């Protein structure tokens, strides 16, 4: 497994796909990086020589925000939205979908597990609801 900027990328996969294991690099960006570093995107990542890795690292550091820097930037943007009190910031704070998705039925990933609100009828159902709490 070659190590690029402190991240182990899978060695048995083609370089184009191995680069995607770095946070902030997707399909298009991976191909772009291979072209800029003058590397064959179909070669296996294990076949990279030291000078190839150095070229790759140089391209990544000069032209792209990845990993920690990108994560910090995204979290700072979210904190800014929350502090300004924008609609998107309020949705982030409430843990609801931010980009206009419906919430009446779906949105379980953001909202979490279902919680029954209201009256639970029947003695058995009531004891089951208490046990779930």
Automatic annotation (TrEMBL):
PROSITE patterns in alphabetical order: RIBOSOMAL_S13_1 (PS00646), RIBOSOMAL_S13_2 (PS50159)
One cellular-component annotation, GO: ribosome
The keyword Ribonucleoprotein is assigned to this record: yes
Keyword Kinase: no
InterPro entries in UniProt: Rbsml_uS13_C, Ribosomal_uS13, Ribosomal_uS13-like_H2TH, Ribosomal_uS13_bac-type, Ribosomal_uS13_CS
Keywords: Ribonucleoprotein, Ribosomal protein, RNA-binding, rRNA-binding, tRNA-binding
SUPFAM superfamilies referenced in this protein's UniProt entry, alphabetically: S13-like H2TH domain
Pfam families, A to Z: Ribosomal_S13
Primary role: Located at the top of the head of the 30S subunit, it contacts several helices of the 16S rRNA. In the 70S ribosome it contacts the 23S rRNA (bridge B1a) and protein L5 of the 50S subunit (bridge B1b), connecting the 2 subunits; these bridges are implicated in subunit movement. Contacts the tRNAs in the A and P-sites.
Quaternary structure annotation from Swiss-Prot or TrEMBL: Part of the 30S ribosomal subunit. Forms a loose heterodimer with protein S19. Forms two bridges to the 50S subunit in the 70S ribosome.
Similarity comment: Belongs to the universal ribosomal protein uS13 family.
UniProt name for this protein: Small ribosomal subunit protein uS13
């Amino acid at each position: 497994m070659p190590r690029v900027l402190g991240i182990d990328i899978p060695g048995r996969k083609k370089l184009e796909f191995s680069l995607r294991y770095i946070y902030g690099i997707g399909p298009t960006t991976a191909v772009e990086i291979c072209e800029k570093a003058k590397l064959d995107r179909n070669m296996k990542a294990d076949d990279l020589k030291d000078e190839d890795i150095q070229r790759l690292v140089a391209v990544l550091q000069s032209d792209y925000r990845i990993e920690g820097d990108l994560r910090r930037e995204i979290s700072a943007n979210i904190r800014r939205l929350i502090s300004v009190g924008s609609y998107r910031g309020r949705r982030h704070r409430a843990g609801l979908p931010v980009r206009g998705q419906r919430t009446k039925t779906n949105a379980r990933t953001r909202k979490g597990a279902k919680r029954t609100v209201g009256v639970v009828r029947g003695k058995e159902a009531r004891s089951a609801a208490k046990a779930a709490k």
